[in-house]
Structures are given as structure tokens and as C-alpha cells.
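Hi C.,

You asked whether I'd gotten around to modeling the 110-residue construct. I have! Everything is below, sequence then structure, no commentary in between.
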Amino acid sequence: MTVTEEHQIRPGVVRRDYLDGLNATEAARAEELCAPLTDHVRALVREVRALMPDMHPQRREQAAHCLKRAAETLDASPRPGEAIPHTFDLAVSARSLLGLYRRPCPYSEG
């Protein structure tokens, strides 16, 4: 198993890291946050995908949009000097996916 496959979602840690990523103004700090944010996003993508079948249709649409954006961000390789915007994008994905993970609003009939 890779580190990413073993990554446990700890909401408090994810929140701390995405807040740091949203507020990173120095390239060195942004670069430090890229690896943990990438791990968080990958783990959250896996979990949110698993939750999607039980989501209300509108929430499922939101999840699909967030997953698409997260995939684009994960596939992007920041060019030199672009650590800050890339870290910001990872932080936005982590924040939105964590919200879906914590409150998937499962669809229930009746």
C-alpha cells in the first residue's frame, strides 16, 4: 500500500491544513503544504465517491462537480513559481470534499 492508500481522514487535521493552504502567502510554506493537501484530497476523493450512490441527487451533482475539479487539480503539475496558486486550489478541493464527506446528506425515502 502507498502512503496515500493508508491515509486516514482526520477532519481536524484536514481543516488545519486547508486553512493554512488558503492563507499561504510564502512559496516555501505553500510547497510544504502541497504533499499533505494532496494526500487529503486523494483520500477524500475516494471516500466521497463511495458515498455518492446514497446522496440526494442535488448533493450528488455537487459532489460530481467537486470531484471533477479535484481531479483537475491533482492532475496539474505546478510550474516553478506557482506553488501558492496550486496549494490554494488543493485547499479549496480539500475544503469542499471534507464538507461532502462530513455531511453527505444521504437520500432517504419515506
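If it helps when you're writing up: The mean pLDDT is 90.

Thanks,
B.
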